[in-house]
């Protein structure tokens, strides 16, 4: 890599390491949940009937089924989500956001958004935000494997 490429790559890797830990720390302190749990609950909130098949939820959250199953077990124990057999396919399992899960998500949102604003949004000019959105769209398209803009999630 040349100097420009190296600086960009190391900057990206550093942010990818530091940002999740900062988001986890804030959410754990304020809401008792991890950033991944928050993400799972957010995806469910925007799903039809706030319910998804576990396989679709794993795909949407870029998770493995074993990791997602472990997280859903923790969410179930806290009453934030529940799992049940899929009515269309008895071999599949659905996961649903509970009213308690929706309330926990709503309570967690202000602190999470304030942290995102403090760490990223407010640190950048409008032009830098546009550039960041363009750059991350290109990278997401490559990571999704089809080279196309990534499908929308609750966060973009």
Automatic annotation (TrEMBL):
Domain named HTH marR-type: residues: 1-141
Superkingdom of origin: Bacteria
One Pfam family linked to the record: MarR_2
InterPro entries: HTH_MarR-typ, MarR/SlyA-like, WH-like_DNA-bd_sf, WH_DNA-bd_sf
The name this protein goes by in its record: MarR family transcriptional regulator
Residues forming coiled coils: none
PROSITE patterns, alphabetized: HTH_MARR_2
PANTHER family: MARR FAMILY REGULATORY PROTEIN, TRANSCRIPTIONAL REGULATOR, MARR FAMILY
